[in-house]
Amino acid sequence: MTGTAPPAPARILREARWTIRSLRPPQDARVQAWTCLALFGWPGPVPSAISVLDHLVRNASEFGRCAGREIEVRLARTESDDLLIDAIDRRTDFPSFDQAVAGHLGQGLWRIAQYGATLSWHPHEDGKTVRAVLGATQAP
């Protein structure tokens, strides 16, 4: 759970990327994600994946310097049936990431961890990517 580049996942089978306006209702991201997951044929807990995406988008909107701007979203299914859920915002740092995941600084990332997702983040020149990896066999 550090700010380093995440390890390379298993080979990507399906991937979708889109952007949403940060001040729009998160339902826009949820509807798009339901469609993608149906097309991906991901065998995992789809409602959990949608909740994870919702929390990532809300966090990016609130804390990622995206107010009124676009947030990039990426979903990818790997050959090992993991689902990668990425939210890309404009802030290049993530102070107190581990404390946020532990629930000491709010509940968004903590709730994602409760779904069994593995969380990481990594900076890049345009901001940062916060990633949740959810396995197909993980229960909510």
Write the layout of secondary structure elements.
Elements: E1 12-21, H1 27-40, H2 46-63, E2 70-78, E3 83-89, H3 97-101, H4 108-114, E4 118-124, E5 127-134
Helix pairs in contact: 1-2, 2-4
Sketch the topology as an H/E string, one letter per element.
EHHEEHHEE
Gross morphology is globular
Q: Calculate the terminal CA-CA distance, rounded to whole Å.
A: 20 Å
Helix content: 25-40%
Largest sheet: 5 strands, antiparallel
Strand content: 25-35%
Strand segment tally? 5
**Overall pLDDT score:** 83
Helix segment tally: 4
Please describe what this structure looks like.
- The chain has 140 residues and is α+β, with helices and mostly antiparallel strands.
- 31% of the residues lie in helices and 29% in strands.
- It is built from four helices and five strands; from the N terminus they run E-H-H-E-E-H-H-E-E.
- It has helices spanning 27-40, 46-63, 97-101, 108-114; strands spanning 12-21, 70-78, 83-89, 118-124, 127-134.
- A five-stranded antiparallel sheet has the order 1-2-3-5-4, with helices on one face.
- Strand 2 (70-78) and strand 3 (83-89) form a beta hairpin.
- Helix 1 (27-40) runs antiparallel to helix 2 (46-63) and helix 2 (46-63) packs antiparallel against helix 4.
- The mean pLDDT is 83.
